[in-house]
Design goal:
Low-confidence stretches: none
Largest sheet: none
Distance between the termini: 22 Å
Strand content: under 5%
Structural class: mainly alpha
Shape: globular
Order of helices and strands: HHHHHHHH
């Protein structure tokens, strides 16, 4: 279960994946992961979101979730002080507006890109943004499952 929770910290999601086993192929598992995700309640999504550090902050620890998070956000460590400060402010504004962490698929993206997206998403209405954050969580989950399963 811990390996699954490193991919997505929703306990109901991880339990449902376990209940669906065995999977004939890795693709079957990826399909089930998405299908299950979209049947969950908002509280399950928020539980998953809460496990992520703010964009631009580093997740402490040596567990799989923390290590993957640091790798996914690697580009933010080389950002200028101005961009890091702007990201911190955007994170705070986002959390005040939506009540949860700004969640975005950060792998392969620059800090400037993540900042621009944060600012754009602040214009979303709460329902639209919850769905957008859920989509981003599913992208993160799928990428992490692929790492876990050692597939491309």
């Amino acid at each position: 279960m811990l390996d699954l929770l490193a991919c997505c910290a929703s306990e109901r999601w991880a339990a449902a994946i376990i209940d669906e086993r065995p999977f004939a192929t890795p693709d079957d598992m990826l399909t089930a992961a998405s299908d299950i995700w979209w049947t969950l309640e908002e509280e399950d999504w928020l539980q998953a979101f809460a496990a992520h550090p703010r964009i631009g902050e580093q997740s402490p620890g040596n567990d799989r979730h923390s290590t993957w998070s640091r790798t996914e956000q690697a580009a933010t460590t080389s950002a200028t002080d101005d961009v890091r400060e702007a990201l911190a402010m955007c994170n705070r504004d986002y959390e005040t507006t939506f009540g949860h962490v700004y969640l975005v698929f950060a792998s392969g993206r620059t800090a400037d890109e993540l900042l621009t997206e944060c600012r754009e998403r602040l214009t979303n209405d709460p329902e639209e943004e919850l769905l957008k954050a859920a989509e981003e969580q599913m992208r993160i989950t799928e990428a992490r499952l692929k790492k876990l399963l050692e597939i491309d």
